[in-house]
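Our collaborator T.R. sent over the components below with a one-line note: 'Predict the complex.' Nothing else. No constraints on interfaces, no templates requested, no preferences about which chain binds where. So this is a plain run: every listed entity goes in together, and whatever single assembly comes back becomes the starting point for the next discussion.
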Amino acid sequence: MAAPNPALSRAPATGAWWNDRRVRAIFYQMVFLAILVGAVWLLVGNTVENLRARGLKSGFDFLPSRSGIPISDSVLDWDPDDTFGKAYLVGILNTLRVGVLGIIFATILGTFIGIARLSNNWLISRLASVYVEAVRNIPLLLQLILLYAFVTRTLPDQLDPIVIGGGFFLSKSGLMFPLLKLEAAHYAAGAVLLASFAAMVGYNYWAKRRQDATGVSPPRLLPSLGILFLPALAVFLVMGAPAEFDIATKTRFRFIGGGAVAPEFLTILTGLVIYTAAFIAEIVRSGILAVSYGQTEAASALGLTRGRTLRLVLLPQALRVIIPPTTSQYLNLVKNSSLAVAVGYPDVVAIEMITMNQTSRALEAILLIMAVYLTISLSISLAMNMYNKRIALKER
Amino acid sequence: MAVSDTAAERAALGPPPATTGFLGWMRKNLFSTVWNTLLTILCAYLLILILPPAISWLFLDATWSEATPEQCRAANGACWAMIREKHRVILFGRYPYDEQWRPLLGMGFLITLVLVSCFRRFWRPWIGLVWAGGLVAFFLVMWGGDIPVSYRTAAVIGAVAAAAFGFTRANAGGNARSLFLWLAALFGALALVGNSILRVLDALLKELFQIEAGLGGLSAFGLGIPTGLSFVPTSLWGGLPLTLLLSIVGIIVAFPIAILLALGRRSKMPLIRMFCIGYIELIRGVPLISLLFVASFLLPLFLPRGVEINDLLRAQVAIIGFSAAYLAEVIRGGLQAIPRGQFEAADALGLSYWQKMGKIVLPQAITLVIPPIVNTFIGLFKDTSLVSIVSLADLLLATKDMAIADVNWRAFYAEGYTFAALIYFVFCFFMSQYSQYLERQFETGRRKRR
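Returned assembly:
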């Protein structure tokens, strides 16, 4: 037979080596790499030349030198004689402060509004919808600027504040609130509380073991609460239950005492919470709707109480839908806190912008800003991914 | 004792509670339980606290007619006279006052383009040509002056036209289409390096044959076609047209980049995949404001000396880079929803990678994610307000620094911001309604719940 057996010929049907997919893949990647390296080379070359032409220095050697920046609102003690490095740290802490508080308050408010939207009370669900639609469709920056103008222009002067009650005063210069005067009793109660928390975790672990072994589940909620709070309360009462508050009081020229937050901080925190809560509300609503009613019926058919249905059946399933988008909302909140620069709150962006103006190291300042947000973003998404993996559907 | 059911007792019980009509509706929706009743009363109390003062400020005590700031202050309500006075500066920024019909017309073009694109029956390849024409018209009206026609603009126009024509012939068979795409690439290359080629040719001719061809002069050849309008540089553009331009051009240019990034992220070539993942995660990990800073402070450093790039284009580049990363993730979601069988079937037909993606996978994937793409656009539309931080006179900055900064009207900041907020709201609200409408049309909701 003259016809060759195709199975015997070793050459692939396509023939030439340049038609081999792997060879082509390597070739394409080489070309891509060459273009990339060329582009980076060009950028770096241009940048170096431009910096030289403008007589600018580069490098991070400015960090340990005196900054001279006035920072009004700082977690650490701040003096304009401190270094740019410390200013950077102050900025990071300010960003984190807004981020953490914002996440906590936005989660609480967003959950309430999300549930309110599903309420069978017409009035409250309508109000929640109006809130969500109004807030989501207006740029955050506009809301922040409007809020800041309201706080600093329309609110009354510091000497004539709006009295909220309970030692809270609201004025142009921010919010004043009462501070608890800390005494030995508070520290002791706090220490006992920590110890009781460990005990509570231990009790729940024992209860779980017992339920697995005998099928009878010991009561959990009440004993847990008892273990957690009773010892601390007892210690607190025994030590005399001191509860003296340091309340801001008016003198002739200003208020003294108490705690206070600056109007800038108040604005950025309130703005971020209001904005993010609207998004979280939508996520919570869709998460609850995603659990079908059959699950509730099945749970009650199994004889679970309403509380256990919620805790063991509905919540775990809803959380699975809620957590991933909520994570990205948390990330958005932290990233949006960079808009603090528009209302003058000294977050890391604002401080690095001042640094940039004073040292004319634009590249370094922007890199420092990006490094902070990238670190925060990556850590939040890492932590959330771990949590998400734990609660994710265990599929076979 | 037996339960008696006398007429007297029945009369004493009264009629059953109404379940229809206004009272019945109230009973069912507002007062069904004690808890509900409490909530209703609380909400109603809050509304009574807030609504009447709000309404009297917004409408009843407000000054609607033309008025001086003093008259407004006396009226004790919202000063809409301020908007009457300042609406043009809010809407159009620093654009020359007598020429403001031009941004109005340009804005009309953009809005018409968006509205036309909302209809599914117009989702055809030729809509690309309509968009190209609309955008050219927008820039013509906004810029005015003489249209510079050099060989480079001609090459760019040729490239765009060939590409557009190539894409509209998508169904006409492979050869015609790839011919046009090659033509587009050729014209594009000419636009980029044509100058240098001409200069080198010129030098060669002079060196070898002592011919003074003057080809170098050809590259500078420029012809102005007068539009009959005065020239207005981009530094004077502002207000709503600028906001619309930044977001619309942002999403259009970002779209092809996003497709490439999304495909690259799923590519089997590790180098390309790593680059795409790195780009997407980097951009999504930092706030837009830092990218705008990069564009306005670092871009001039990155470019060769002597190359100037105007503020508007810088911000536009940042917005494109930003939205490309977010869009890429949306499109990746669509790609992941396409079943494996589609890829395998395309492979079995012997389609090349680009044929497989372009003809089989991407059309399905993108249709699937149109509602989230609209949502991305809404986010982008709101995010363009950040360009005000790098001093671009968009709607927000025009309101803040041009209208409200006026000493006479400073006190009426709330009115100015309310007006700007209302404009943003109207656009975003309708787009989100549209996205929800599309979602119902595609029934992606049902698919998600499964």
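Summary for T.R.: The beta strands of chain A are 162-165, 168-171, 174-177, 179-180, 245-246, 249-250, 255-256, 259-261.
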